[in-house]
Specification:
Largest sheet: 4 strands, mixed
Radius of gyration: 18 Å
Number of strands: 10
Shape: globular
Distance between the termini: 26 Å
Number of helices: 5
Length: 222
């Protein structure tokens, strides 16, 4: 696939302990005969010998996984609720999935307060402002706002390789009134954000330097 095109593989009813198997399935699908033809002319290195299961999987300085035998093949994994997702591309990228925690109406006020405290601690002021504005209309829009922000921020730190750390609150995926579709931190590379629909109750975001298209593939049930 072209570097501006990202393949997103989804598996429902997925178990976290089977993540490596699902990753192999996704990579094999990405490198299938139909998709491999799209790679011609990109001057990529020859694929490592043997099946994907024999490739050496390593971790970078901040824990980001990569195949030592195919460092040009970039991927990012996230698991939440009953879904496992993997984004694959020829460029660095990050993906994050968040299941929203839904509770009864009686608990809604306390839940928004709890998320508000987390936002004040970890979010950029503009993001905290946007979240706070969503708590004013009596709906649960604040829940979607919180998890959309979190998914976007995690997708960026996965893309940059920084991981969640001291820089997590130093950049914003919101202008204070809504979500942004680009992020340009002073400490890291610029990137685009793409928010995707999975199913009600989930927030999903993909991040990369350039996103022209996200192609979604269903890996089916385990």
């Amino acid at each position: 696939m072209k570097e501006g095109v990202i393949a997103l593989y989804i598996r429902a009813e997925a178990a976290r302990e089977a993540s490596r198997k699902y990753l192999r399935d996704a990579i094999e699908r990405y490198l299938s005969s139909d998709e491999r033809s799209c790679r011609e002319g990109r001057n990529l290195p020859t694929l490592p010998a043997g099946p994907v299961s024999s490739w050496r999987l390593e971790k970078g300085e901040h824990g980001k996984p990569f195949y030592q035998d195919a460092p040009w093949l970039h991927f990012s994994i996230s698991h939440s609720g009953t879904f496992w997702v993997c984004a694959v591309s020829g460029q660095p990228l990050g993906v994050d999935l968040q299941e929203r925690r839904r509770k009864g109406k009686a608990a809604a006020k306390n839940e928004s307060d709890n998320l508000g405290r987390i936002a004040a601690r970890f979010f950029h002021p503009a993001e905290a402002q946007y979240f706070s504005s969503m708590t004013q209309d009596g709906s649960r829009a604040w829940e979607t706002a919180f998890y959309d922000i979190w998914a976007a921020k995690e997708s960026y730190v996965k893309y940059s390789g920084e991981g969640i750390g001291k820089t997590f609150g130093e950049f914003s995926v919101s202008d204070g009134k809504g979500l942004c579709f680009e992020v340009n931190p002073s400490f890291g590379p610029p990137a685009m954000l793409r928010f995707l629909e999975l199913e009600p109750g989930y927030s999903l975001c993909v991040c990369a330097e350039r996103i022209e298209e996200v192609r979604v593939f269903d890996l089916g049930l385990p």
